[in-house]
């Protein structure tokens, strides 16, 4: 059974700081990994999707890496802004097939202070 | 472009009342659709998924049911709500590349 752990559970940083969020998983036989952002009381917004054959993906100030062999992914946020404050969720996609499912971590609550 | 709609945004229902939450997807055909629940202090739990009309798979035994009457419509239901059914319900579909897109969610409070 895939288990996903996100560390730290909460993080508070001053504006402008670069930061790294961590995600670890127990089963390396994944299809892909997706990072989401969730604002309070809102749905999930997809940030980055990394296929199992890829090592990293970048979008603006965000960079996500994937190391299947070690069961780890990181989300790097450069020059953080107060608007980045949210919960960040890591989700692992299992093996392919029509019943493809995501397994989520519990998230990291990020607060960026002005 | 593909969009996913979910309603209502919030719902307060008494214990024992019925429930119907609707999710529709636009801009795609024959999508894989999913219902997740997020309870306070817990992670996202997959409740149901559907690979086509009338095809429903349940992940956990519970007081809820799901139906897919049309290709792009996914409905979450209950005949009699329990207090433990309270939570944040999210509908999602799986796109090309197997990335997921989520709806805006429904906050259900059972009182």
Structure description:
Chain A is mainly beta. Chain A contains no helices and eleven strands. In chain A, strands 2, 4, 5, 9, 10 and 11 form a six-stranded mixed sheet that branches. The radius of gyration of chain A is 14 Å and the shape is globular. Chain B is an all-beta fold and 111 residues long. In chain B, strands 2, 4, 5, 6, 9, 10 and 11 form a seven-stranded mixed sheet that branches. A four-stranded antiparallel sheet of chain B has the order 1-3-8-7, with no helix packed on it. In chain B, strand 4 and strand 5 form a beta hairpin. The chains are: A mainly beta (114), B mainly beta (111). At the A-B interface, strand 4, strand 5 and strand 9 of A face strand 5, strand 9 and strand 10 of B.
Shape of chain A: globular
The arrangement of helices and strands of chain A along the chain is: EEEEEEEEEEE
Query: What is the CA-atom radius of gyration of chain B, in angstroms?
Result: 13 Å
Give the N-terminus to C-terminus distance of chain B in angstroms.
38 Å
Q: Main beta sheet of chain A: strand number and arrangement? A: 6 strands, mixed
Number of helices of chain B: 0
Number of helices of chain A: 0
Indicate the multimeric state: heterodimer
Give the DSSP E fraction of chain B (strand runs of 2 or more residues): over 45%
Mean pLDDT across residues of chain A: 92
Report low-confidence residues of chain A grouped into runs of 5 or more. Answer: none
Largest interface: A-B, 25 and 25 residues
* Uncertain stretches of 5 or more adjacent residues of chain B: none
Helix content of chain A: under 10%
Cα-atom radius of gyration of chain A: 14 Å
Shape of chain B: globular
